[in-house]
Amino acid sequence: MPKRSAEEKIKYYNSKIRKLERKKRHRTRSQSSSESDKNSDNERQIVDPLPSTSQHASGTTLEEVPEDLLPDEVSPEVIAMPVPELDPQLLEALGDPTDDTPIYGPDIHTSLAQRWLPILKKGIQAEAKTKLLKEYTIPDNCKLLKAPTLNAEISAAVTDLVRNRDKKLQAKQDQLGLGIAAINKAMSLLLTCDDKVQVTKMLSDGCRLLTDLHFNETQVRTKLVTPGLDKAFLSLIQDQDRDETLFGNKLPEKIRASKAIEKQGLQIKKVTNPKSSSSTVTRFQNQGNWSVPPRYPPSKRGGAHIHIQNDGTTTLPPATTGAATDAPETIIGEGEFEQACPCEAVTQDTSAAQTVYPGCSSVIRKAFESRGTPISALDLVMASLSKNTLMQYNGTYKLWWQFSQIHNYDPYICTVSNVMLFLTEQFKKGAAYGTLNCHRSALSLLLGNVTCDEQIKRLLKGAYKLRPAMPKYSYTWDPQLVLNFVAKWVPNRELSIEQLSKKIVILLALCTAHRVQTLASIKLEDIVINCSGVKIGISSPIKTSAAGREQPVLVLPYFSENKAICPATVIEDYIFCTKDIRPFNKNNLLITYKRPHRCATAQTISRWIKQVLELSGIDVSMFSAHSTRHAATSAARASGLSLDTIRKAAGWTNRSQTFAKFYHRPMLVTEDFASSVLMPNM
After folding, report:
1. Candidate from 3-7, 157-161, 271-275, 497-501 with smallest mean pLDDT
2. Engineering a disulfide at 556: which of 18, 296, 354, 534 sits with its beta carbon 3.0 to 4.6 angstroms away?
């Protein structure tokens, strides 16, 4: 027989060692079983002569193999020499060993374990589960085992997400209830038979645990539903006990009672007196966060004045007719109002100035309707106003409505002096010329040509001289700082969606000099990619859109000098990386990088741009996301680009002076100038 090579010897010894280890593990298992004492003795005879069993037919033993031919993980010393026992004192000094393994109880019957383990791994099949749930019903004398249904009033107030989550919890709770019912059915059978005290106790303990879990699930459902409710409503359901519904069947009655109490606390009934109608009662009541002065000036006709205090009581001052008196004021409650003022009549003006502010759109509709606009044409008139314009005018109309209530004016019919008084009050409160001009523009939509009066123009001119409007930026930042930073984000297709989204928006903002509103309006079907670059047409209306004016077209050629900041390449890579996560039936280019993926709004894009500016070292406490428009156009002008090209690229008209007045700014002066002055001449 030829002599083995070194590798064959190593394989042979490894095979022998594995066989010995398997025999040793088998012996350990055999010793732990009470039914295999004889087998353990036989195996001990096989395993004990460990050194001698590794001898081969050729006469080579394990001890004779050179140590360099043995595998690294096995050594002769480990196999041959037993581990010595430590001294008991040393073991005591080391402390008790820590066992992280879980502690299990005695084994259950093998037949039971064979049925539960597959269910614990894969669950019950749908058909078998449905059949099992139909086999048991909730006992008639323990109806609360059935999961309570969500109240219809609460279901209408919460979102679909909360309702769907509650349905899942309700199904789980119903299953627990049926499980408890099945155990109780077994207990009922045991109670009618012979004495089975121990079995009854075990079943009873199981029912207790399941019932407690049932209660906990009810508490969890309550905590998941209540965050979507009004805080003022939580006091009604805070300590309510459940029945068939989650918050009790008496919830509708409590809601109605609460609203009735609230209504009674905010209103005071009219009191009429047929004997006397000359005197009136002027009533003030501050509701919510209302902090403006009273709507009506105090009466000088001798009528009593009743003041509603914060605690709900009413103050009735002494009569002021005739000579002055030092009599104290009388405090009366709401229920005592009619008895305390039997001779006073409460009057209420129903004119437009005394109504609650109806909202921006309603105010504008009412104004056009009062000027003779047909009702059928109001929708077309309102369509001429953009959403942002309505949001901006809404603040003016709120202030104008409060001003009209204080001075008892009709907000739809006012004189020039009324408008001048309103603008003067706003100026005294700190409003600048730009804010006053915005107020004038909003009121012109409401009042017509009144705001175009020469006196109002003179007032605005005076406000400009006393509080001139300064440009937002006296200088701008260098776009190269940001471009050098995002050039490090390569390659594009290996970036995260978040990083790639922020890179594309900052490049689009700088290379097009357009507003974020324009970037948010880019559609995939409007993007044309060819060999020279990318052309993007803007089909949606934007701020500069008007009748007879062309929509902007964004032209982005391939920038071969530095492909890391090439906007055309980034657009191609962005479309490729986001093709699998785009929302259905949404064609916007820019989408959010967090689930659920939606179309990115102008506010989201602004936040992304500002985050990139901050990472690039730009002072975001001074510069906003819109400053990219200043930086891009100023850098283009500094490089020698003509004004006509800048106006056309940024969306300004040929005669527009916007760039020269507001956007053309010098770059931020660095410390290079001071250093050159301080540098000694060589």
Report:
1. 271-275
2. 534
